Amino acid sequence: MTQQDRFDASGYTYAHEHLHIDLSSFKNNLDCRLDQYELICDEMKTLVSLGVRNIVEMTNRYMGRNPQFMLDLMRDSGINVIASTGYYQFAFFPQHVAHTTARQLADEMIAEIEQGIDATTLKAGVIGEIGSSKGVITPDEEKIFHAAAIAHLETGRPISTHTSLGTMGLEQLTLLKKQGVDAERVVIGHCDLRDNLDNILRMIEQGAYIQFDTIGKNDYYPDEKRIAMLQTLAQRGLLNRVMLSMDITRRSHLKANGGNGFEYLISTFVPMLSHAGLTQIEIDLMLRDNPAVFFK
Fold this sequence. Notes:
- By secondary structure, this protein is an alpha/beta fold.
- It has a single domain (21-295), classed as Metal-dependent hydrolases (TIM Barrel), CATH 3.20.20.
- 40% of the residues lie in helices and 16% in strands.
- The chain has helices at 24-27, 37-49, 67-77, 102-114, 139-155, 169-178, 197-205, 223-235, 264-275, 280-294; strands at residues 12-17, 21-22, 33-34, 52-57, 80-85, 124-132, 159-163, 186-188, 209-212, 242-244.
- The strands form two sheets. Strands 1-4-5-6-7-8-9-10 form an eight-stranded parallel β-sheet. Strands 2-3 form a two-stranded antiparallel sheet.
- α8 (223-235) links the parallel β9 and β10 (242-244).
- The longest helix is centred in the middle third of the chain and has 17 residues, at 139-155.
């Protein structure tokens, strides 16, 4: 049985997270190196106790991914990790992307899905986080989306995207559909970073999933506004296309370091949703049922 077959549909899923990521050199900030094993393992144990079964880990190549770290976390905490393959966004691309074909890039992704990541037993279960820049999709980013489409069509693994500050989601979906990807196999990330309801409705109308996956990052966009958009989607019966997560990427996000910690979504945000009138069925839909369908 391969790792991507081990999705546990019995509990909740965080649809877009990072357990080991290192963007510290790019951002010139040690806080952007998330690698404190004991602290993260303790938080995963807490999540398991709260009914979370799966973490979709969106750190791909050249972002500081560490497959052995993830394997150890699964062993020591009981959490299930769905690993990813792909390339992030233009500012983080290695030089070779510019002169590598979409077919070659796709073959790299397919190898990590079918054979394993960095000679470990961990196989990628999702293609992501495939990203675009703020307000634009660069030619190299477009090539990565083409490669992701090829890898998806040949392996069946779903595609999860990164939108910079919630921009270009519709354009990402258009690109992938042009390459033959069914919108139902795409989730557009970071849709909760701006007043984005009109675009969200258009993406859902086309069949795509969307993520409210920066929950707790109130400096970017307040949770109260996230909840207001979710209330509107609930009223329209569209929560069957929504997944939730926190996109934790920094040491300072961990609870022991003074941050919200991974449990904030369950312990704080879910009660806020209940208080705002969302039912337990609707909450379970976003955290359990939709991920079980999408990441199967």
